[in-house]
Amino acid sequence: MRCFIAVDLPEELKNSVCQIQKELNGRGTKLVEKENLHFTLKFLGEVSDEQRWLVRINLQEIKLPPFPVTLKGVGFFPTPGFIRVVWIGADSDQFLELHNAVNKSLANFFPVEKPVPHLTLARVGSQAYASYLRDFETKYRNTSFGTFLVKELKLKKSILSGKGPVYEDVMTLMLVNDNDK
User: Fold this and answer.
1) Backbone phi and psi for residue 46, each to the nearest 5 degrees, phi listed first
2) pLDDT tens digit string along 134-179?
3) Which has the closest alpha carbon to 20: 115, 127, 107, 141?
4) What is the CATH number of domain 2-180?
5) The whole model's pTM is what?
6) Beta bridge partners of 133
7) Residue-range domain boundaries for the chain
8) What CA–CA distance (Å, rounded) separates 103 from 97?
């Protein structure tokens, strides 16, 4: 099964993000559906039942307390000169720490990647609106879109369909406070 590790965005922030996404609609973009808005911590790809079990065991070793994350700023992948993805950033050192903890816990099974905490807003299929997208980035470069508390991470499976991906939760792991250990 095709899997990834993610942090879901709370419903109230999904509504705010969808308002911002409207400015990208019809600009050579495919917007991420509201129900699919999340932060990917690590894409795993095709995972066997045995690997899924190993992922669960290793992720349970992560001992971090819940922490706040502020959605802040807009950026692009791979570069402003060639835009394929428009995203909102995650302003939180603890979020980067969680990314690194996930990478480290799974390093024996999956490649280690350099984390760039982000929430994908849209995928860009045409560079015809690149100038508009760069103006959009300038407009929202320093904007804060809200804050939420990260309390859990999820192993999700991704089912690809003609209508786009469908995500299902496979496992949820709660972050724990020091006094809960």
Assistant:
1) -70, 125
2) 999 999 999 999 999 999 999 999 998 888 888 999 999 999 876 5
3) 141
4) 3.90.1140.10
5) 0.89
6) none
7) 2-180
8) 10
